[in-house]
Design goal:
The protein is of the alpha/beta class and about 260 residues long. The chain has twelve helices and eight strands. The chain has two domains: about 160 residues, Rossmann fold, CATH 3.40.50; about 80 residues, DNA polymerase, domain 1 (Orthogonal Bundle), CATH 1.10.150. Helices cover about 45% and strands about 10% of the residues. Helix 10 links the parallel strand 6 and strand 7.
C-alpha cells in the first residue's frame, strides 16, 4: 500500500534535544542532595546512567512513565511516589537547556520530511513530550531549505518546522502513552488516513512497538547504535541515517533504503 501519511516522533528523530541530558542531570542532582542517603543505599553512581538506559527505559514514554521506569531501573524504592518529584526537576532542567539553545535539528530528518511533503505525503508530528512544539517552533525551515538549495516543496519565508505538519498531536493528554498506539492512531485520524496507510518514523523501542500495535509500518532510526533494540521492537526497517531512505520508494510503500555507496 502506498504511504499516504508519515508520522514523525520529535526527540531523537527530528531534533537532537537535551531530554536525555535533562533526565540524567536531574537525577544526579537529586541523588546528590535530597536523596543522598537513598543513593548510597541503592549503590547509585552518576556513571550508571547511559544512553542505552535512556533509550530502553525512558525514551518515547510520557514524562511520569519515563521517570518511574528510570527510578525502577536504579532500584529506587517507592518509585511511583518519587517519580513526580523527579519528573518536575527534569522539566525544570529541560526548560533551562531549551532556553539556552542546547538543541539542533537533524538535517537528514528535515530533508526526508520535505522530500515526502513534495511527493504528496501528508505529515504528522507525534511526540509524548509537551516540549516538542517549542523545539519545532524555534527551527526555521525556510533558512534550512535555502542553505540546502531545496526548491521543492516551496518553503514560505519565515516557516518553522512546526508549521510543516498537516497534523500535530505532540504532548496531548492521552489515557495511555507509548508503547500503547493511542498517539499514533490519533495522528492518523487527524490526517484523515487509515493506520495501514501510515508510516511511523521513530528512534525509541517504545515508539516502534506503538506503531506496530497500531497497524502501521515502522521505520527505526538508530542514531545511538541501538539497532538491535529497534529490530527487537519490530521495526520493518532500521537505518542509521535518514538519508539512507529513498523517498520515492518509501512513498510507494516499499521500505527500502539507499545504500551508502550508491
Amino acid at each position: 500500500m502506498r504511504v499516504e501519511g508519515a508520522i514523525f516522533d520529535v526527540d531523537g528523530v527530528l531534533v537532537a534535544s537535551p531530554h536525555e541530558r535533562a533526565w540524567r542531570e536531574a537525577l544526579e542532582q537529586t541523588m546528590a542532595t535530597e536523596w543522598r542517603t537513598l543513593a548510597a543505599a541503592v549503590g547509585y553512581h552518576p556513571d550508571s546512567w547511559t544512553t542505552a538506559v535512556y533509550q530502553e527505559f525512558v525514551a518515547g514514554r510520557p514524562r511520569l512513565s519515563g521517570a518511574r521506569a528510570a527510578l525502577e531501573y536504579f532500584r529506587v524504592p517507592e518509585a511511583e511516589r518519587r517519580a513526580l518529584e523527579y519528573a518536575e526537576r527534569k522539566q525544570q532542567r529541560l526548560v533551562e537547556l531549551i532556553e539556552a539553545g542546547e538543541f539542533i535539528a537533524f538535517p537528514d530528518a528535515l530533508r526526508l520530511a520535505l522530500a515526502l511533503k513534495a511527493r504528496g505525503v501528508r505529515l504528522a508530528a507525534a511526540s509524548s513530550s509537551k516540549n516538542a512544539n517549542r523545539f519545532m517552533d524555534l527551527i526555521r525551515l525556510d533558512e534550512f531549505a535555502q542553505r540546502e538549495g531545496l526548491r521543492e516543496p516551496k518553503v514560505p519565508p519565515g516557516q518553522t518546522l512546526l508549521e510543516l505538519f498537516d497534523a500535530n498531536v505532540c504532548g496531548r493528554d492521552l489515557p495511555q502513552g507509548k508503547p500503547h498506539p493511542a498517539i499514533f492512531l490519533l495522528a492518523a485520524e487527524e490526517l484523515g488516513l487509515a493506520p495501514a496507510a501510515c508510516l511511523v518514523v521513530e528512534d525509541a523501542p517504545a515508539g516502534i512497538q506503538a506503531a506496530k500495535a497500531g497497524g502501521m509500518a515502522a521505520l527505526g532510526i538508530a542514531r545511538v547504535g541501538d539497532e538491535a533494540l529497534l529490530v527487537a521492537a519490530g521495526s520493518d526497517v532500521v537505518v542509521t541515517g535518514l538519508d539512507q531512505v529513498a523517498p520515492d520508494v518509501l512513498a510507494d510503500g516499499r521500505l527500502e533504503r539507499v545504500l551508502a555507496n550508491s
